[in-house]
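Co-fold these.
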Amino acid sequence: MEKAKADNFSITERKDFILTKGRQKDQLRCGEDSIAGVVSQRACVYCGARVVLNPVTDAVHLVHGPVGCASYTWDIRGSLSSGSDLYRFSFSTDLKEHDVIFGGEKKLTLAIAELAQKYNPKLIFVYSTCIIGVIGDDLEAVCKAASKKYKVEVIPVQSSGFAGNKSAGYRAACDALLRLIEPKTIEPGFYKEKRKKSINYLGDFNLAGEVWIIKNYLKQIGIDVNVAFTGDSSYEALKKATGASLNIVQCAGSMIYLANKMDELYGIPYLNVSFLGIEDTAGSLRKIAKFFNDLEIMRKTEELIKNEKTKVSAVIQFYRERLTGKKAAIYVGGGFKAISLIKQFKEIGIDVVMIGTQTGRREEYETINDMVDDGTVILDDANPSELEKFMMEKGAHLLVGGVKERPLAYKLGMAFIDHNHDRKHPLSGFVGAVNFAEEVYSTVCSPVWNYVTGTGAAFPAPQRAKII
Amino acid sequence: MQKEATYCRNVNENPCNMCMPMGGILPFKGVEKSMVIIHGSQGCSTYMRRHIAEHFNEPIDVASSSLNEKGTIYGGESSLKKSFDNVIKVYNPGLIGVLTTCLAETIGEDIERITSEYIKERGLGDLPVVTVSTPGYGGTHTEGYFLALRRIIVRLARRTEKHSKINVIIPNLSPADIREIKRILRLMKVECTLCPDFSDTLDRPFARPYTKVPEGGTKLADIAGMPGAAATIQMGLTVEDSISPGRYLEAGFGVPLYDVPIPMGIENTDLFLNLLQQLTGNPLPECLEQERGRLLDCMIDSHKYNFQGRSVIFGEPENVYAITRTCMENGLFPVVVATGGKSNKLAELLKIELSEHHGEVHILNEADFSQIREKSREVAANIAIGHSDGRYLTEREGIPLVRHGFPIHDRVGGQRLLSVGYVGTTMFLDRVTNTLLENKYNNYRSLMYQEFYQNNGDANIYFKE
Ligand code: SF4
Ligand code: SF4
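Predicted complex below.
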């Protein structure tokens, strides 16, 4: 990899976090704290923890802190539920000045009491926010006492926002989940016979029903999903997580820690999978089938893949013909998503010219580097001005990102794909691949761009006219 | 009959307000070439940016000093100073606002001292930096808004020669509303300093090339001259004196203050225009007369429909007051009026306003959406007016919501909603009336069928509606 030219950046400290893929080998810096004042797009530990735990449908999610943190995260995710919808409420202890001075433990106790009475939940997650650590509330003790008194499992989530970034929040969430799972430890071999062809599905939050789509596929090939972490999950289901004989991990950034722990504690092995894009979906299903080493499962898997592929291939081909040659920029939360997106774009003939993540891990960046073409810019923890600069320089036609990135793309006259937890349509599985292609087409080939003229256009009008 | 309630509770269930620094960002966005640094942990600023970006559909660049563990333990001085360096390098702003978060306040950061030290160290005497202490736990986003605005004026205002301009202090309105107020002022030939003015910066026309810091906003020089103005008109009846920008200009420089309601509804708009006539001596131009006439026409056209409305009104105090008044004028009597923060002034104003109200009405102070929902269900409200966070009223109670105010994150066009002046009020009323009508058309066939065909009029469904 060749380091991008230093004079590209007004902030020199950012230099090592940005690379242009080339011949020289060099490491991209990542996994560090954001630099002050650079307008990072990252969120906080609490955000990460909330992303992972929020889909637990019948839990009370109580945010211990001032009201803002809870206000900004109220029902902002598209996780669906087949049962309770308690998870869509935002509960806050709404700490005020007085509590900050005298401590918030009393208020927290009262809050738990009130919620336990009003909703009679089996499970309460208590999220710690930034100031909790500073004012010295003993979350652990309050939760323990309340658990006993109100006969409800109250689990503290150590998600003080400043101690790391979103990834630290994933870990805090996994720790909270581990406390739920029973039994706490098992004898080696205990589950050997008891476990059937049943798996846990880690790292899918059932956005727009994605867990359901995958569950259906697995059912068709003869495999049950024991519980998904955490899309459309419930207290009871999570407790029984040890009943599975295999964990499959989709969003590795958030769940690999839990998978490793479950392997260590309960001897449940795991496989990395991805159900984003046609090839990944097919590959992952085969991988699972192979694990069970069962001819019937393998046969059914091939049948399913064949059927589904025939269903979608003509549609995908339609979009591919119209999209080939376009250039994409990607800026998303984690490395898993970024990697899947490169593959998904390949399937519809699009090259990636810029790619970055908020919290990608070293291994993930290495994979990314191996996958993209020479000249592609790779960046960690980017900010709006870097995104703008490289998207324009590289002539990207579209950006994939979250809510904050969308207006930037639009202001630059560029197409945009929403790839966040807010989305209302599934991107998983074969049906998801079609949705994805359709979304790309709907934004890249919209007639509105024909009216956007002037200098610095992402794609000049005459060239566009030819392609369409 | 009025019933008032302030809730004492241990849990805020689905909050009806946001926190101080979020509100503090907005006025800075309405000041020429300004940038904001949020001193605290990264997450707060990201959440706030996300929220603001969703409403306005504009890139919202706000820096964070990204305090980490070390900064939290040993103080965030170096982080804040580095933030200044980086923001100046990338954005070259004409003014920098520094807002604190809960974390920075809890660890006792002295942003004023750090800032003046920084300016001295770097020899940046010309760069105005406005520090605002905005602990999230200290107040609502509305309070943050006015406090930040006041601090901007305090920092920039200079004792100047008296001049004939009028200061106009704008609350958290939509860019379209601000543009309408500017149009009215132009028609009235009023020379003024409108502050803040995010009508362009947070709703910019598509143009190339893209600039990181949008054009527009109140000019720094104009703010500096505010103390010399002939008067201040502040749309801030509910603003406490301690955070009132107009009050500061009055107390510090003797600029007479006229606190007026947001010019929404016929009476509020009349009041605003009468005041302008009184202050300038200019007559009301014919086109505004005509617009007034059209509004009257609109009110008459829809009065019977509106009479069937039982409204729930919620949001920021200033908005709540203006909407309540507009509803009262049109016979669309409110049954629940709520705000998320604690606003004594609003409560007082509502008491007077609602004294004409003959039915039952509940005023909820420091409310959250679980209380608003419960009350709305109890009193059989049939229309809600407020921001997007009231969407559960529709989803769970079947009460249609007319979106108004901030934030509107589940629909497009929050920045383009026009509701002030005669024209804006007309549009607002049509939105409300049509929502009532749509609900009526959707339901009346089945209601009548149930009531008179199936139940022989015993069930009284019709009268409950
Ligand atoms: S309430 Fe405080 S901690 Fe929470 S987002 Fe607002 S400023 Fe940050
Ligand atoms: S206070 Fe901390 S936990 Fe809350 S939003 Fe800010 S960074 Fe996140």
